[in-house]
């Protein structure tokens, strides 16, 4: 059992150091995120693999892996499945380094996660996100910030202004947010799929939702999708944006996000093939 924020990371790290071959995270995406912190290796083969027993409200990573949402069947599917070593995202913000498997973002999604810190998420579940997202987008005016990124096939940085930057590692964020990722990410990709929403926020954010739901993203002039190896978000006009990773609030910008190859072993059920766009 976890006892406090961060205790899952320590438990996972200790289990790996003491010879466990697989560490199962029993919980939602937040619990999985904490366990990942204790299992990622930046040099050499990770000591233990990640397994997931999905009992959270969103279970984005479990759904991406096509795991059964019944806890027993999910565990059995991974025991009977296979293991792969995958890249993870690496985020550096506010003096902290965090690793992520599902997504990381700066701007509105970070502000929403920050707002949820005081919510009773466990009792309200996913609907708490919907309600607070509606409140936030109706009352908040999001400032633009600078984003510098390096395309996967290029060297050197490009720069744009945006009101939202989201790196997506799964094809479906689930629920009302499922269309935002554009079915364009996979945890096995060795690059980051970066979604940029350009100002003005009052027009661009609703248009992002609508065009994604209608499958018309390619016709949205305020939405840009690019494959990158690294990107940086830099506050403009003195307004630091909120930053999140895997649905956990990390801090306020600036932030640097990159890809870390071969950093995590993970158990997968049979049939969890890499998503092909």
Could you explain how this protein is built, in words?
- The chain is built from 8 helices and 13 strands.
- The protein has helices spanning 7-17, 29-39, 60-64, 71-79, 108-116, 121-124, 126-139, 201-213, and strands at residues 22-27, 49-54, 82-93, 96-100, 103-106, 145-151, 158-162, 164-168, 192-197, 223-234, 242-245, 248-252, 255-268.
- Strands 1, 2, 3, 4, 5, 6, 7, 8, 9, 10, 11, 12 and 13 form a 13-stranded mixed beta sheet that branches.
- Strand 6 (145-151) and strand 7 form a beta hairpin.
- The model has no long low-confidence stretch (mean pLDDT 87).
Give me some keywords for this one.
277 residues, alpha+beta, Rossmann fold, Tumour Suppressor Smad4, 2 domains, 13-stranded mixed beta sheet, 8 helices
List SSEs in N-to-C order: HEHEHHEEEHHHEEEEHEEEE
CATH topology type of the largest domain: Tumour Suppressor Smad4
3D shape:
globular
**Total domain modules:** 2
Number of helices: 8
Q: What is the rounded Rg?
A: 18 Å
CATH class of the largest domain: Mainly Beta
Helix content: 25-40%
Q: Low-confidence parts, pLDDT < 50 over ≥5 residues?
A: none
Strand content: 25-35%
Mean pLDDT: 87
Main pleated-sheet profile: 13 strands, mixed
Q: Name the structural class.
A: alpha+beta
Amino- and carboxy-terminal Cα gap: 38 Å
> What is the count of β-strands?
13
Please state the second-level CATH architecture of the largest domain.
Sandwich
């Amino acid at each position: 059992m976890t006892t406090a924020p961060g205790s899952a990371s320590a438990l996972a790290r200790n289990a790996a150091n003491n010879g466990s071959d697989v560490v199962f995270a029993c919980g939602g995406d937040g619990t999985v995120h904490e366990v990942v912190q204790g299992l990622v290796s930046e040099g050499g083969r990770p000591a233990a693999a990640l397994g997931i027993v999905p009992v959270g409200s969103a279970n984005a990573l479990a759904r991406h892996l096509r795991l059964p949402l019944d806890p027993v069947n999910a565990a059995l599917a991974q025991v009977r499945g296979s293991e792969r070593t995958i890249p993870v995202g690496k985020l550096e913000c506010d003096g902290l380094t965090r690793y992520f498997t599902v997504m990381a973002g700066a701007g509105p999604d970070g502000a929403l996660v920050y707002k949820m810190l005081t919510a009773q998420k466990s009792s309200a579940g996913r609907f708490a996100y919907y309600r607070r997202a509606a409140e936030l987008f109706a009352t908040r005016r999001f400032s633009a910030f600078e984003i510098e990124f390096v395309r996967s096939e290029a060297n050197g940085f490009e720069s744009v202004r945006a009101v939202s930057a989201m790196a997506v590692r799964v094809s479906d964020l689930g629920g009302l947010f499922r269309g935002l990722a554009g079915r364009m990410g996979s945890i096995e990709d060795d690059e980051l799929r970066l979604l940029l929403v350009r100002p003005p926020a009052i027009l661009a954010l609703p248009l992002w939702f609508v065009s994604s739901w209608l499958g018309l993203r390619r016709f949205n002039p305020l939405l840009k999708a690019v494959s990158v190896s690294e990107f940086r978000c830099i506050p403009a006009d003195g307004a630091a944006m909120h930053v999140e990773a895997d649905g956990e609030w990390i801090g306020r910008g600036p932030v640097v996000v990159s890809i870390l190859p071969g950093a995590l072993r993970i158990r997968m059920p049979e049939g969890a093939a890499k998503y092909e766009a």
